[in-house]
Amino acid sequence: MNLRPALPSDCGLVPPSGDGRPPIAEILASLDALGAAGWQETEIASQPAPSGGALPIRAYASTAAVDAVLIGGIHGREPAGAIALARYVPRLIERGRRLGLLVMPLLNPWGYLHHARYGPAGQSVSDSDHLLGRTAAPACPEAGAITDFVVHRAGIRPGSAVLDLHEDPIYEAPDYRFDGFGSYLYFIGEGASDHPVSRRMRRCLAGSALPLVRSGVTRFGEQIVEGAIVDSADGSIDELLARRLGCTPVITVENLLHAPDEPPLPGRVEVYVAVLDAFFGA
After folding, report:
1. What integer is the mean pLDDT of 216-238?
2. Is residue 258, in this structure, part of any structural domain at all?
3. Domain annotation covers residue 2
4. Does residue 2 register a pLDDT over 70?
5. Are 102 and 61 in contact (CB under 8 A)?
6. Is 54 part of any domain?
7. Residue 1 lies in a domain
8. pLDDT at 58 over 70
9. To bridge 45 with a disulfide, which of 57, 179, 201, 218 should be the other Cys (CB 3.0-4.6 Å)?
10. Which CATH number covers residue 17?
């Protein structure tokens, strides 16, 4: 018997972002197949829906002991990761028969719906500075709940590999300019930059439709060297997983967005489906 509350009506609407992203309900319906395959579903937190009710923030685990973590949808202006994870569900089910997988595919549904980087409090929903000794309290309620879940309840083993699918909407910074299209990486964790999974990721993106940017400076002032930024201390959930739980490699993928639909969303999703294959060594 399904005892989950009905989704708010907002979840059935196509978000007015103009980039062609599907409704939240479509993404969540694809992920329901994980539960049907025996995965454990956990509602980590929720966010207020414009029409009333709550937008659920869910995690899905194939086993109690986790060997690999997949994350998407932290920033609402970066939809390709969440959509790619939803499309990848049939292969996740297959891979979850052999690996302990934890999937957190849409950590900021409010941001996805509103085409906003952060959640309703104006803060990153996965900010981890409070658990990295830099602030006294979580940045927002979602950050408190999500970080508590991954540290204390998710069963993530030391050495687990992590893939966090982001995008870099450089149009948010009008004074910043980066010519051309492409992608770049973050690596965190012991030996992460030379890990076999990281090497596969470099090869995958180097030959993709969003080729690896070998050098440059991000809009946050970080130096890209050979396509990557290594050992960043940015207060992200990725840093938390590496420093508190000993995960490695922790890989964040970014592609450069010059406008919400430039490059177009379908192509970005295709690249991220290929990135997921490379993560698993397919």
Report:
1. 95
2. yes
3. no
4. no
5. yes
6. yes
7. no
8. yes
9. 57
10. 3.40.630.10
